[in-house]
Design brief:
The complex is a heterodimer. Chain A is of the alpha/beta class. Chain A is built from 12 helices and 15 strands. Helices cover 73% and strands 4% of the residues of chain B. Chain B is globular. The chains are: A alpha/beta, B mainly alpha.
Chain lengths: 379, 304
């Protein structure tokens, strides 16, 4: 590594291979995704414009911030860049890792919190953050694209107590208020339009009766999948069968939908914002000249991240290094994928590059539950 | 509004606590049963239930080469799996250690626990998965958001039936009397022609049955389980329930389980996390401490 060339850790010049890592919950209690293990399948052997190919490895963060930090720090020694697969706390822990920042390791993830991340020169979010999604979620509810009672008149917000969800929580309450919600978000009051809790026990035992008593038909949920599954189970479908929504891809992953569908005997209703369309929508948009088939939207997301990374690699000016890669991201805009399969990413204003999100609705079918796209929402 | 808030703060968590506590009670019954018969605490008790739950879901969903069976049949196979692992534990681990110090056997059951978690991870994967309610639907939905599921009713009824059955078994049957005799004086019991080995197997099979029923009901109530999660969720409360009620008392395990469940749920609901993180578990141990200070043998236990 020379000062002039920049940091080239993770680049095998002899074999023309760039090593990169993606962290996600391969194991652990947070509903880990086997699909993360397909990372090498979708990324490896992709030829870049500079003649290099990519060698990607999926590393296990066990859906835990401490494990994520350890995994990222270890991966920084041998990989050129790191991609955050899932989990706000895990992504935040890796993005803010002093070691990653010191070594200039490019770190990219889906948009999550903005807290503490906007000023990190090595971090870039490739989709809308939770704060950016808040007004879009209200639009989504008002449009009622699902054709039923999801109008967002009375909202319960069930949020895990973590500082990383503070901006999401405040942005959504603000969006609700600007759309006429009455009452103070806080302690339970059935007359209030908004019921907010970030103090729920892991099984939602105290929250579920409050949601039923207040007849909150729309639930903004932000928490890990196992918490989500237990809450859906405890809230049930009678006397109200609420609509679930929220920012980020958490609700989109097939396994999470499957959890909720199972917990409600396939009566679960959920519509959420997601960086990419449902797998079914992707098939339609690209048919007949479509790419690979995907088992679920995690695999799709991994494939999508590769498409975006490829564009960045191809746009690097001068010798490839961690510094030149970061410079290629900062202040630049990248086009989407044909037919709107992936939205453009725009870092001209800040490091949160998301420009739009798809509204995907859960479709319970009793076996492998999926999602279907019901709209697109632009920032 | 005030009535609704009071109902939400106290009545709703009490109902949750009774249902959750009934599962603790079921597991506690098995723990007390083994303690009464052999004077050991079985650390693998909750995981016998975990094995039952995973075997149930394997057959309920037709995992791999296994047939996709109707739920009642899959549940029955799951419970039998709980009995089988308990019997194997007794035959392979406990019986060879009959004459070893009790602490050795207790540690050996902890080893069995770790082995079972590893086996679950090997067959199911190191991942969490869904477990549907064995009996779906709601038995009651009423004011203040109170909801009692059919599964919750099934848990309470099961606990009541099994605890009454266990009490009658020990007080009214020859085999029940034999189990107690073996625990109190194995040599004399052997001299009067009772097979200590057979009684030991029977006791472990009963404990496995109770754990199997509890594990399947608990996994279906939570809706989500991973290898080892039933131990993480229920073993300590079940031990606490057993000690709380009096570790030699079967009705004590029942009462202890329900009381522990209510205390945990009320504390979780009404004590803010900011003031006391993990309020449910803290309240549970505080209550146990108070009971043991006032009544060392537990609520319904007798000094032996």
């Amino acid at each position: 590594v020379s000062a002039r060339a920049g940091t080239t850790t993770g680049i095998d010049f002899k074999n023309k291979v760039i090593h990169i890592a993606l962290h996600g919950p391969l194991t652990g209690a947070g509903v880990p995704q086997n699909s993360f293990k397909t990372t090498d399948h979708y990324w490896n052997n992709h030829k870049l414009a500079n003649g290099f190919s990519v060698d990607a490895v999926a590393i296990d963060d066990k859906y835990n911030a401490a494990d994520a930090s350890r995994a990222c720090n270890a991966a920084a020694d041998t990989n050129f860049l790191i991609v955050g697969g899932a989990g706000t706390d895990q992504i935040s822990a890796c993005a803010q890792s002093p070691k990653l920042r010191r070594l200039h390791v490019p770190y990219l993830s889906s948009g999550v919190t903005e807290a503490g991340l906007g000023s990190i020169s090595t971090y870039h979010a490739t989709s809308l953050t939770y704060r950016e999604q808040a007004p879009l979620l209200i639009k989504l509810a008002k449009n009622a694209p699902t054709g039923d009672e999801f109008t967002g008149k009375k909202w319960a917000m069930v949020i895990t107590s973590t500082p990383n969800f503070k901006d999401a929580r405040e942005a959504f309450i603000s969006a609700l208020k600007s759309n006429g919600a009455q009452g103070k978000a806080g302690a339970f009051n059935p007359d209030s339009d908004v019921y907010l809790t970030d103090k729920a026990p892991s099984n939602c035992s105290a929250v579920a009766p409050a949601i039923r008593a207040g007849a909150y038909q729309s639930i903004y949920f932000l928490g890990q999948p196992s918490f989500f599954a237990q809450c859906v189970n405890n809230i049930g479908v009678t006397p109200i069968n609420p609509y679930y929504t929220g920012p980020g891809p958490s609700f989109g992953i097939s396994s999470v939908i499957t959890l909720a569908c199972t917990a409600t005997a396939n009566q679960y209703k959920g519509v959420y914002l997601h960086p990419s369309p449902s797998v079914a929508e992707y098939m339609t948009r690209l048919a007949p000249d479509r790419g690979p088939d995907f088992a679920d939207d995690i695999e799709f997301g991994i494939w999508g991240a590769m498409q975006q990374l490829k564009k960045v690699f191809d746009s690097v000016q001068g010798p490839l290094s961690r510094e030149s890669f970061n410079a290629a991201l900062d202040g630049h805009k990248f086009g989407g994928y044909p037919n709107g399969v992936l939205h453009p990413v725009d870092f001209t204003g800040d490091r949160f590059g998301g420009t739009a999100a798809y509204a995907n609705k859960a479709a319970c079918n009793g076996e492998q539950s999926k999602s279907q796209t019901v709209g697109v929402y632009y920032k | 509004v005030t009535t609704e808030v009071v109902a939400l703060s106290f009545v709703a968590p009490a109902i949750t606590g009774i249902i959750q506590g009934s599962v603790y009670g079921l597991l506690g019954l098995g723990i007390v049963l083994l303690y009464k018969s052999s004077r050991i605490f079985n650390f693998a008790q909750a995981e016998f239930g975990g094995v039952a739950a995973f075997v149930w879901i394997f057959f309920d969903t037709g995992k791999g080469f296994l047939p996709d069976l109707p739920t009642p049949v899959a549940v029955l196979i799951g419970v039998l799996a709980g009995v089988l692992v308990a019997l194997l534990t007794e035959r392979v681990v406990v019986r060879p250690l009959f004459n070893a110090p009790k602490i050795t056997v207790v540690v050996a059951t902890a080893g069995v626990l770790l082995l079972l978690i590893a086996l679950e991870g090997f067959t199911y994967g190191a991942t969490a998965g869904t477990f549907p309610a064995v009996i779906g639907g709601d038995a009651y939905t009423g004011g203040a958001g109170i909801r009692i599921t059919n599964q919750g009713v099934a848990i309470m009824v099961t606990l009541a039936v099994l605890s009454i059955g266990a009490a009658l078994f020990f007080s009214r049957t020859r085999i029940g009397t034999a189990i107690i005799a073996v625990s109190q004086e194995p040599t004399a019991t052997r001299l009067v022609g009772i097979s200590v080995e057979r009684i030991s197997s029977l006791t472990w099979a009963l404990a496995g049955f109770l754990a199997g029923v509890a594990g399947i009901l608990l996994a279906g109530t939570i809706g989500l389980a991973a290898p080892g999660s039933l131990t993480g969720l229920a073993l300590v409360p079940a031990f606490t329930a057993a000690v709380f009620g009096g570790v030699t008392s079967l009705p004590g395990a029942l009462v202890g389980g329900i009381v522990i469940g209510i205390i945990e749920a009320e504390a979780q609901t009404n004590i803010p996390k900011e003031q006391l993180p993990g309020a449910g578990k803290v309240a549970l141990f505080a209550a146990l401490l108070v009971v043991l200070l006032i009544r060392p043998a537990g609520l319904l236990g007798k000094e032996t």
